[in-house]
């Protein structure tokens, strides 16, 4: 069986004694052994990033972005390989995995514009013969700690910008889905990235805690569940680091009485059950306003019953959950919803998956008549469980969303422009869809939630991502007289 280890200073290093197993969630089979970093392994990764930093920071922007372009070309040509790795370890169906890689690729493309994004400004004669200009500079080694549900895309929300801006990176992927990170490290090497600029540290809390407290790590980008995001934010900021820690979610979709119910039902299915509900932007609560609930629930149920659940490589609509423990947790929530008195319309516990072996499946599950006091409403289930809450009015629906402690994504389905406008204005959520169920912003906008869905000031990628991975400097200048000389008749070139 293969052993997956850390990628430090341009190559894989031997695995230490702490290990765990990686499984294929569609079959339940163990596919690899994974090294879990010791404190010394984590220190070695930071040391590699620290050593590589000065030369990388001083590498010209032209050369840095040329390497970004090469990485983009290689990734685009070989994205199917990465998607297959994602399907094998996460379980999401292949097309969905390909979509995740494409969304990550968008951030690489955005980061190729770093020469423009990092431009400073200049003011001549701010005072008599005094000029002032601003620059943005890299921070140093930065840590990226990512969750299991997007093994390729979430790291790519951060590292293309971090690297293009002149930082060096230590990526700590989720121990459930470790292979994608090493694969991307190999691709960086092929693209010409110097050794030590991008490092992968495999592991668990030991690796994370070392990164959060190490004095040479200057910034931390974290994505994961809310309790860990809060812990990461508090620990790393207490250790003097810049932190953006994206947490969990409970995303609501409002359907107003004037909406097209067929389009709304399609959207609820796609956003509720895509990636088996293991998306931070998944819709898990649907607020049906007025008298539309009976008709809408029937349409969603009909579509949910037609979905095929199984191995993501077999052309199914929905794959397994990531581990047996997580499947059992989600099943426990379905039991709890029934006990609490919600109406179970579609029961995913009885699914017969299209897969070999003993995978971690639960089919699409639909509850009606859910109330805000029930655990299926209150908790982030992170599985294919969609809860319909019946509410009297738009105001009541908005109040439910704004009272929720999370604020990652939300959507309204309506043909009423006034209602939609009021929704975007008043809803306390970071990413809003108007007739768009999964409103993940493009790479040139920033991704992030509000309230318990994000700790820190800056969102991921877009211009906020550029700000996060750089710091500003303002320079005030006075020269007594012109002193620049030298002759060169050649056409000016980048170097
Ligand atoms: P998780 O919090 O369990 O793990 C995230 C990372 O933290 C992993 O790398 C893990 O190894 C590490 N970690 C876990 N426990 C730790 C501990 N005690 N101390 C230090 N580090 C620890 O999250 P997950 O289950 O991998 O991912 C699912 C969660 O991520 C969901 O809550 C989901 O909403 C959230 N998520 C949020 C976003 C977003 O943009 N807000 C995006 C994707 C996922």
TrEMBL record:
**Molecular function (Gene Ontology), one example:** methylmalonate-semialdehyde dehydrogenase (acylating, NAD) activity
Annotated EC? 1.2.1.27
Q: Which PROSITE patterns match?
A: ALDEHYDE_DEHYDR_CYS (PS00070)
Q: Where is the signal peptide?
A: none
> Which NCBIfam families does the record cross-reference, listed alphabetically?
MMSDH (TIGR01722)
Keywords of this protein's UniProt record, alphabetized?
NAD, Oxidoreductase
Tell me which CDD domains the record gives.
Answer: ALDH_F6_MMSDH
Q: Which organism is it from?
A: Arthrobacter alpinus
Top EC category: oxidoreductase
What's the protein name?
methylmalonate-semialdehyde dehydrogenase (CoA acylating)
GO BP of this protein: L-valine catabolic process; thymine catabolic process
InterPro entries, alphabetically? Answer: Ald_DH/histidinol_DH, Ald_DH_C, Ald_DH_CS_CYS, Ald_DH_N, Aldehyde_DH_dom, MeMal-semiAld_DH
Q: Which Pfam families match?
A: Aldedh
Q: Which SUPFAM superfamilies match?
A: ALDH-like
User: Which residue numbers delimit the Aldehyde dehydrogenase domain?
Assistant: 14-475
